[in-house]
Design a protein that fits this description.
The protein is built from 13 helices and twelve strands. It has 319 residues and is an alpha/beta fold. The protein folds into two domains: 21-100 and 204-311, Periplasmic binding protein-like II (D-Maltodextrin-Binding Protein, domain 2), CATH 3.40.190; 104-198, 3-Layer(aba) Sandwich (D-Maltodextrin-Binding Protein, domain 2), CATH 3.40.190.10. Helix 6 links the parallel strand 6 and strand 7. It is globular and about 60 Å long. Keywords: Cell inner membrane, Cell membrane, Membrane, Signal, Transport.
């Protein structure tokens, strides 16, 4: 009798497993866009009946090509590249928030750079055009100090390669996001030339985005993604130590090598998380920041004309 019961329950279990919705989510390899890693590890996607495949990318603009073409269903990415592609007519929308930008300009000690004004004539590494770091660096920082892309050589590179560019003297300075900011300071003789949050205090940096097709045809799936995101945010806020362990396994399973020895990845991530502010809800202040992004992107030539923010940002899923 027991065997019969087990045989009866087995097909039901297989059916339940088969019914899990498959979703492909891309994420940029920086901490502000790492919430999907937490959600997967903690089982938040499974709780929502989702079978999620995570795909890493080195930068937002490259990731957005995959999202716009339908190779991904959703993405953890910076707001700026989502807006650029949406303004160009791509069927992509913001459905939730993730974290602030927390950007620093780090310069080699032998570069002679002590502040932004010293960047004149120097080579600066930054994520590709249309990314959050490049938008804020080129659109806010350079003009503030009387500089532009003619007086400063801006070299585009993917996130994991920026530290290497500093180490090999390819760059005199670089605009970095965590955890690469912390790693660069541990491995190299650098100084912080400027913290971009001095001029950009907004909490709008990384977002959760999705294809319009998913939003329109599977709104319940979108709600599940947002719910999992919210739980991941709560986990990081309430248990930063445990979150650091999870992210360290993903980013630096073997720790970080420095001249003083190998530093555990968990210690590196825990330090890097201190400068980040995670949140899943989109506020009125975030919408104002989105408008500022739009203006900067137009000024930089990333978009020909701006589009209404309500055509890019869907607030209904986080209210």
């Amino acid at each position: 009798m027991m065997i019969k019961k087990l045989l009866f329950l087995l097909p039901l279990a297989l059916v339940g497993a088969a019914e899990a919705e498959k979703v492909r989510i891309g994420y940029v390899q920086v901490l502000p866009t790492s919430l999907s890693l937490i959600a997967r590890e903690q089982g938040y996607y499974k709780e929502q009946g989702l079978d999620v495949e995570l795909v890493p990318f080195g930068s937002g603009p490259v990731l957005m090509q995959a999202l716009a073409s339908g190779k991904l269903d959703a993405a953890q990415v910076g707001f700026a590249p989502v807006y650029v592609w949406a303004a160009r007519g791509a069927p992509v929308r913001v459905i939730g928030k993730a974290a602030n930008a927390d950007l620093s300009i780090l310069a080699r000690n032998d570069s002679g750079i002590k502040g932004p004004a010293d960047l004149k004539g120097k080579r600066v590494g930054v994520l590709p055009s249309g990314s959050v770091p490049e938008t804020l660096f080129s659109g806010l920082v350079l003009p503030k100090f009387g500089l532009d892309d003619k007086s400063v050589t801006v070299v585009n590179s993917e996130a994991p390669n920026l530290v290497g560019g500093l180490a090999t003297n390819r760059f005199d300075a670089a605009v970095l996001l965590e955890p690469w900011t912390t790693i660069a300071q541990l491995q190299l003789p650098l100084r912080e030339a400027y913290n971009i949050n001095t001029v950009w205090k907004s909490s709008l940096g990384a977002v959760l985005a999705a294809r319009a097709e998913l939003i329109n045809k599977q709104p319940e799936t979108v709600k599940k993604l947002v719910a999992a995101q919210a739980k991941a945010v709560s986990f990081v806020k309430q248990q930063p130590g445990e979150a650091a362990k999870i992210l360290a396994r993903e980013f630096f399973p073997n720790g970080i090598k420095t001249e003083k020895g190998t530093i555990p990845g968990e210690q590196v991530v825990q330090s890097a998380l201190k400068g980040l502010s995670f949140d899943s809800k989109i506020t009125g202040a975030d919408l104002e920041s989105a408008e500022e992004y739009a203006q900067l992107l137009q000024q930089l030539g990333n978009v020909q004309k701006t589009v209404p923010i309500n055509r890019v940002v869907h607030q209904r899923f986080t209210r």
